[in-house]
Amino acid sequence: MDLKVVSFVLLVVQNTLLGIVTKYSRGTKYNATSAVMLIECSKFVLCMLIVAYTKGGIQACWTSVQREVFGDREGFKKMIFLALLYAGQNTVALLSYDYVDVATYNVVYQLKIVTTAFFMVLLLKRSFNIVQWIAMVALMVGVAICSTARPSSKDKASSSLVGIFMVLGLAINSGIAAAYLEMVLKTHKPHQTFPNPIDPLWKTNIQLAVISVAATGLGVAHAAYTTKDFSFFEGYNHFTYGVIALQACGGLIIAAVVRYSDNVVKNFGTALSLVLSSLLANYLFHTTSPPMFYVGGFLVVASVFVYGDKRFHLQASPETIVKPSKEHDDLESGLGSKNDEGHSIQDIKIAPEATETLLSQRTKE
């Protein structure tokens, strides 16, 4: 079975369900800080269970994790840099809501689709043909239309130039983080090799989860110290736990899409799930979408097919074909899988994705 297709389908299903479950979970306001910590803890546990299954037991799993995960100091340093990018993303995202309205935020932030592709070209030496670039721009426009066509909230904040620059910075940071994670997943090689090593997908996620759990744990401790009557599970309901579970699985699914495809494909998947979840919400909550939403939805679906179907791609002459670097070829053969011209679809955001959904409640309710 093609892991590219499986991971893409799982991403669309997970994001679609997440949109619906998050809607149900908003009945009560819950502790977002503790929820993010539980998401990161869940990712760590899931990765450990998968490694334990592949290694044949808990003891063998722990031995391998100590040796390959915690022993890879260079890998941890790379994950610390990624965690810092995510921390900055979450902090600026929260602050930007005070300077821009939700509609402006949603439109400007879609530039992450193009910035992700740009940094993939810069860091991973990827190349895209003109049809793929057009499809990405169409996707960006379609998502922006879908995001602003639905009536949003009671948000009456005006947009300032400072706020717009903050969101532009978020879009650039998101592109850097996504391309950087893909580069680590596909290029990092530890100094010491072991027989039957842990898959880089799970190894990288364990390293990132350890750092994220520590960081979010400090956030929870600070909130507990500074907040009167602090409750870790304040406002939790059954749907809250559903959001936590889906976010935890989503982080791993996104990493899988990035590993077996790439970040552009990830962006297409999350955009497609936005349309599907909105249509499903119309049915479940007896709501209707304005005509412009369907225009945006058509652009999203059309861009997915145009980008993924090679029949739409222009054939370059031999003189104009840009070949990947030798390092990229060696990397692909070493992983045992080859990327097509296609690319991956949520702002990786492994940690930011989780946080962004929870933080956005304060503006969209």
TrEMBL record:
The lineage of its organism: Eukaryota, Sar, Stramenopiles, Oomycota, Saprolegniomycetes. GO terms for cellular component: Golgi membrane. GO terms for molecular function: pyrimidine nucleotide-sugar transmembrane transporter activity. The chain crosses the membrane at residues 35-58, 79-97, 103-123, 130-150, 162-185, 206-226, 238-258, 265-285, 291-308. Keywords: Membrane, Transmembrane, Transmembrane helix. This is UDP-galactose transporter. It comes from Aphanomyces euteiches. Its main location: membrane. It is found in: Membrane. The keyword DNA-binding does not apply. Residues 323-346 are annotated as: Disordered. It is a multi-pass membrane protein.
